[in-house]
């Protein structure tokens, strides 16, 4: 009983996006405002990029970060949690795995960063999850709404650009309108975005998902200002050579929940990820020496993340 929709405390959680928009048509207007903003291409300087099954949180005074963002969301949903008083913000890229625990972590991180700011509410924004043929996006939407509805705090849903509101018909195929967003942590502005460069250890981070990780990784230590990857491990991938020998179309059809609408680089990224797994079958040994995370610090000259070497 703690989800607030259009200013009204809810007894029940919406079962799907259709019922949400029928009961609260104001979310159509909010989505239209977001959709009217031109898509920005965000460079690596001052960027904290969050991948699938990852999350991160930061405060406006963080000198290392200007933008938190993610993209390539088709059936996935991007979740932004923000404290209206302090401006502390958390962003996650959810595909339905590990949602309950990650929602609690997101809210906790934002609360920690908002200490000393008694005024303000926890606001929730959802973007992504177009109307796909298998209704995967609806499943992810419902799992997210359920998790926030179970939380003990009152949480205001202020944006829900999901489902039909994030869908456009191209030919006879439903396609997402927005694939990614950025959040300006100084101002709280949220905008459609693409990210040509996605930060360090991309193949390592994608390998974790490919091999079936069941949790959402918190990738930023706000107290230290460090990007933190791992440690984690996975089992060796059998048949990596066989995967790599397949055509792009085969990989697209077998490794995507939405093969008709994936961005052009999807299969290239899949091949790079499989190749990485093939070369690092036991990352606990080859990547995370002594079971320690890989830490990155913002380089003051370039503005990009650089590995902290022992």
TrEMBL record:
The protein, known as: Protein N-terminal asparagine amidohydrolase isoform X2
Provide a Gene Ontology MF annotation, just one. Answer: protein-N-terminal asparagine amidohydrolase activity
Q: Which residues form a coiled coil?
A: none
Q: List the GO biological process terms.
A: ubiquitin-dependent protein catabolic process
Alphabetical list of Pfam families matching this protein: N_Asn_amidohyd
A single GO cellular-component term on record:
nucleus
* UniProt cross-references to InterPro entries, sorted A to Z: NTAN1 (IPR026750)
């Amino acid at each position: 009983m703690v989800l607030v929709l259009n200013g009204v405390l809810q007894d029940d959680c919406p079962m799907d996006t259709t019922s949400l928009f029928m009961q609260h048509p104001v979310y159509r207007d909010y989505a239209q405002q977001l959709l009217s903003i031109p898509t920005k291409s965000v460079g690596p300087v001052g960027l904290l990029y969050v991948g699938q099954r990852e999350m991160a949180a930061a405060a406006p005074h963080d000198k290392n970060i200007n933008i938190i963002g993610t993209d390539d969301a088709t059936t996935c949903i991007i979740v932004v949690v923000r404290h209206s008083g302090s401006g502390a913000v958390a962003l996650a890229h959810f595909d339905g795995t590990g949602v309950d625990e990650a929602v609690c972590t997101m809210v906790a991180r934002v609360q920690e960063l908002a200490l000393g700011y008694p005024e303000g509410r926890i606001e929730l924004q959802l973007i992504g999850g177009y109307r796909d043929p298998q209704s995967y996006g609806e499943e992810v939407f419902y799992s997210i709404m359920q998790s926030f509805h179970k939380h003990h705090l009152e949480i205001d849903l202020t944006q829900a650009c999901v489902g039909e509101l994030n869908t456009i018909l191209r030919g006879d195929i439903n396609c997402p309108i927005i694939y990614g967003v950025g959040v300006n942590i100084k101002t709280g502005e949220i905008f459609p975005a693409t990210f040509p460069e996605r930060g360090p250890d991309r193949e390592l981070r994608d390998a974790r998902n490919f091999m079936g990780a069941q949790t959402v990784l918190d990738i930023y230590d706000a107290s230290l200002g460090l990007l933190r990857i791992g440690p984690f491990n996975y089992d060796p991938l059998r048949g990596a050579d066989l995967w790599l020998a397949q055509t792009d179309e085969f990989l697209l059809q077998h490794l995507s929940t939405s093969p008709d609408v994936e961005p052009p680089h999807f299969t290239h990224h899949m091949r790079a990820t499989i190749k990485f797994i093939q070369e690092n079958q036991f990352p606990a040994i080859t990547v995370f020496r002594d079971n320690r995370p890989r830490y990155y610090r913002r380089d003051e000259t370039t503005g990009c993340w650089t590995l902290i070497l022992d």
